[in-house]
Amino acid sequence: MSSSADTLDVAVFDAKPYDREYLAAGAKDTPIEWHFLDFRLNTQSVAAAAGFRAVCLFVNDKADAITLRQLADQGCQHLALRCAGFNNVDLKVAHEVGLKITRVPAYSPHAVAEHSVALLLTLNRKIHKAFNRVREHNFSLAGLVGFDLYGKSIGIVGTGKIGRIAAQIFRGFGCKVLAYDVREDAGWAGQTQVEYVSLEELLKKSDIVSLHAPLMPETNRLINAQSLAMMKEGAYLINTSRGKLIETRALIEALKNGRLGGVALDVYEEEEGVFFEDLSDRLLEDDELTRLISFPNVLVTSHQAFLTREALTEIARVTVQNLLFGAASKSFLPGSEL
């Protein structure tokens, strides 16, 4: 690594082609010099960050206590997350060793909310199956029956920015929207004709449940055997938030016994090492994920809800600003500093 004293060298772990493209564009005409690494940050790879003033991480990088202490010992001053979630970072140790920690608190809530609806529409109307049939010149409609969203009850779990947008989209379909959040916003609910209820009531009354809650100790495995048993028979479950909101084994049991009509997931409880990777040339070692994707009424995408031009542009913009502000010891963008 060779650069001038004015250059801000940043090691970017787990860099995919779209990361390289958008981060490069976002840092144009700035002193940031990206050093893209294909592998993830963990205790085995942390030595690759030696000499860098900052590192840039994504959701599957592991910034545990050992890794953070070694980063600090190697001269790293700033850990810039290019995502909203930070459950992969030991914040207590990061602060102890003097690392600045920033994230991108909101990049495009519309991207994630729209993907939730796209998953539901695809699963319900069997669009993925119809697409494959037609490519094989099979124009039969047998087995492709879905249902109208109009008039259905939609349960939104978590009414942050993404949950609110999803609720408004479903209202546009003519759905009745129920919501659950530990912090209710009566003003917003009244304006959008959304009704706040308890989680138990939401699960019992909703034809479709869509998860938009953050991962915290209180929400870890929020959807488990007990909560699945409360859901309407034949209900659909959508999750574009965090994989660990759902207990996978309980979900598989609910699918096996026919409790659920369909499940659409963009996240998975144990997605690390699987999602974002091309594993098409090998056997999938995760037996539960293999079982999940074998169900005809399950649709899984690989954590791509955020993947729009608008979201990637905003992720790059905020990440660059966080790094520049951090290097200059200025105040960070609102909500960015941890």
CATH class of the largest domain: Alpha Beta
Q: What oligomeric state do these chains adopt?
A: single chain
Largest sheet: 7 strands, parallel
The whole-number mean of residue pLDDT values reads: 94
Looking at the overall shape, the CATH architecture of the largest domain is: 3-Layer(aba) Sandwich
Would you report the number of β strands? 12
Query: How many structurally independent domains?
Result: 2
**What integer value in Å does the Rg equal?**
22 Å
Q: In DSSP terms, counting alpha (H) and pi (I) runs of 4 or more, how many helices? A: 12
Distance between the amino and carboxyl termini: 29 Å
Tell me the strand order in the biggest sheet.
8-7-6-9-10-11-12
Ranges where pLDDT stays below 50 over 5 or more residues in a row are none
Class from helix and strand fractions = alpha/beta
CATH superfamily of the largest domain: NAD(P)-binding Rossmann-like Domain
| Amount of beta strand | 15-25%
Helix content: 25-40%
Provide structural commentary.
The model has no long low-confidence stretch (mean pLDDT 94). α1 crosses α12 (309-327). By secondary structure, the chain is of the alpha/beta class. A 7-stranded parallel sheet has the order 8-7-6-9-10-11-12, sandwiched between helices. The protein folds into 2 domains: 8-107 and 308-327, NAD(P)-binding Rossmann-like Domain (Rossmann fold), CATH 3.40.50; 109-300, Rossmann fold (3-Layer(aba) Sandwich), CATH 3.40.50. The longest helix has 19 residues, at 309-327. Helices cover 35% and strands 15% of the residues.
